[in-house]
Design goal:
Blueprint: E1 94-99, E2 109-114, E3 125-127, E4 143-145, E5 153-158, E6 161-162, E7 167-168, E8 174-179, E9 184-189, E10 202-206, E11 216-220, E12 243-247, E13 258-265, E14 280-283, E15 297-301
Antiparallel strand pairs: 1-2, 3-5, 4-5, 6-7, 8-9, 10-11, 12-13, 13-15, 14-15
Biased composition (Low complexity): 30-70
Signal peptide: 1-21
Keywords: Signal
């Protein structure tokens, strides 16, 4: 998983967000933060995108071997990159999608697959006839069905357009989020972590698994059995709304590598004390670097 190096003295040694198993920051592999007091490690995060609903359209058979291209591209790294998720540069009636070339559950490359004959659009219910890592679903070109838990149905989510350095989303209220490693860029609705203004079944989390991530997006809540402050977690959206999965070393009661912490308002820093007297409201952004509208966002943690 990639880690982000930061140099803010105020945030020194505060290990940023997590995301184990399902997503990571878009930093290159091998980038690691040291243990000195001038760095902050950042999360590797993940989420499962599942919702209930009736499948839309006819699914593509998994018995068919999808045609592929041979174009190497950068947005999925060097592994299995046969097309560009940003450019959607596959032949007619095919789409570029993320998949796992080794048969695993999470994407490590891209390939061209046939577009379903009656495709579901972003925001509509969808189905994955096999497993998520196959990259086969009934979503339209430029989108995928995020069914990480293999329930058989979920919702189509649009891939980001543009580029890794300047990603865009089809809907102006959406923001590009970066999941998995190599990175899969997908669009989710923007939100405010202090307001938690997402729909039922969703939670507001960073668009990247990194302290200082510039945007916040609504992602489907995963593993709803746990998610309160101090609960063990491993996915970026694996905590209750209002909470976030962070490195356990930054929470005094955490006995596992990752636990749920609580978003806090820097204008009400004492709110963290109700959970533990050693907690502080740690600024999400470095001074002067906050995304407009999110200047007071913080996360409860222990400054080591």
């Amino acid at each position: 998983m990639g880690r982000l190096i930061r140099t803010s003295a105020q945030l020194s040694t505060f290990a940023a967000i997590v995301a184990l198993a399902v997503g990571c920051s878009r930093e290159p592999k091998g980038t690691t933060a040291g243990v000195d007091t001038t760095s902050t490690t950042a999360p590797t995060s993940g989420d499962s995108e599942t919702t209930s609903g009736t499948p839309t359209g006819t699914t593509t058979s998994t018995s068919e071997t999808p045609p592929t291209t041979t174009m190497a591209i950068a947005d999925m790294g060097s592994i299995g990159a046969q097309c560009s998720l940003f450019m959607q540069d596959c032949p007619a009636e095919q789409k570029c999608t993320a998949w796992n070339e080794d048969g695993g559950p999470f994407p490590n490359g891209t390939r061209c697959v046939p577009v379903d004959t009656n495709p579901a659009l972003p925001g509509e219910d969808c189905v994955v006839p096999g497993k998520f890592g196959d990259g086969i679903d009934n979503c339209a070109k430029g989108s995928l069905c995020l069914d990480l838990e293999n329930t058989g149905k979920a919702t189509c989510v649009a891939y980001c357009t543009g580029s890794m350095d300047a990603p865009k989303c089809p809907q102006p209220e959406d923001r590009c989020a970066f999941l998995f490693e190599p990175t899969v860029p997908v669009c989710f609705s923007k939100c405010d972590p202090l307001l938690q203004d997402c729909s039922a079944g969703e939670t507001c989390v960073p668009n990247e698994a990194a302290l200082g991530a510039p945007h916040f997006v609504c992602m489907p809540r995963v593993f709803p059995q746990l998610g309160k402050y101090g609960d063990s977690c491993y996915a970026l959206s694996g905590c209750d709304p209002g909470n976030l999965c962070i490195y356990g070393e930054n929470l005094p009661s955490c006995k596992t590598p990752y636990c749920c912490s609580v978003w806090c308002d820097l204008e009400s820093p004492d709110s963290c004390l109700e959970y533990d007297p050693t907690l502080s409201c740690v600024p999400w952004f470095e001074e002067g670097a906050a995304t407009p509208g999110y200047e007071t966002v913080g996360i409860c943690g222990v400054m080591q």
